[in-house]
Amino acid sequence: MTEKLIRLAKRIALTGDYSRRGADILVSDGRVTVNGETALIGAKVTADGNEVILVDGKPLGRSDKSVYIFYKPRGILSSYRDPHNKKDLSLFPELARRKLGYSGRLDRDSEGLMLFTGDGGLIYRIQRKEFRVEKEYDVTTDKELGKAWLNRLKNGWKLGECALLPCRIEQSGAKRYSVTLVEGKKRQIRRMFKAAGANVERLIRVRVGGITISGLKEGELRKLSEEEVKTLLDREQPPFTEGNFSPLR
């Protein structure tokens, strides 16, 4: 079986030290070497870190491969710095000090569980839909959806040119829903409910794999135990169907 390859710039960006654009610039400026050779633009490497990658002569990534969970509050950007001076992750001293890579960006108006680690390979596996790591959200809307719409949204669907995998949606209260995905397109849940005629008023990520946000306060960071890390990739979940990918208009 051929090992999965990804773009070098993406691998660099997974450390959390550089944006994807910044990583591209590093490569194009000749500041990155892979196994002793200057990297070329568009170069690909393994996702799990088998190569020796140096940026300006220093090893890529951080030695801290521990995994942390963080409750991102609403109103905070999922980045360490913002050119427009909006509130970001640098407001939290432990995150600002460690500057670890993270999996699962949340938009500024969303809140909940984010994972931080220096293990780029783990981040890659959590993010990629082929590994089917579940992400569960608690969603509150401004109006209730009928059963017909809920059934449509559970199947694979298209919004414009964007084809998405099936998901699970269960109504958990008045205008409140539990949504489980194995992928995470940009503003996916908000766009999905908008297509169904409802606006999302509150969105909280409550689980990734076997890790939940239970007991974690807003702005709190906690290190996971080795046993907890193993549950991140627990695939003992009912499989999703293939879906029919019907358009949502």
Describe the fold and architecture.
By secondary structure, the protein is an alpha+beta fold. The chain folds into two domains: 5-59, RNA-binding S4 domain (Structural Genomics Hypothetical 15.5 Kd Protein In mrcA-pckA Intergenic Region, Chain A), CATH 3.10.290.10; 67-247, Pseudouridine synthase, CATH 3.30.2350.10. The chain has seven helices and 18 strands. Strands 7, 8, 9, 10, 13, 14, 15, 16 and 17 form a nine-stranded mixed sheet that branches. Strand 5 and strand 6 form a beta hairpin. The longest helix has 9 residues, at 20-28. It is globular. The termini are far apart. Mean pLDDT is 83; it is low at 238-249.
Write the layout of secondary structure elements.
Elements (H helix, E strand, L loop, with lengths): L4 E3 H6 L6 H9 L3 E3 L2 E2 L5 E3 L6 E3 L2 E2 L7 E6 L20 H6 L2 E3 L7 E7 L2 H8 L7 E7 L5 H8 L2 E3 L2 E3 L3 E6 L2 E6 L6 H8 L4 E9 L2 E2 L8 E3 L2 H7 L13 E2 L2
Parallel strand pairs: 9-15, 11-18
Antiparallel strand pairs: 1-4, 2-3, 2-5, 5-6, 7-9, 7-17, 8-9, 10-14, 10-15, 11-12, 13-14, 15-16
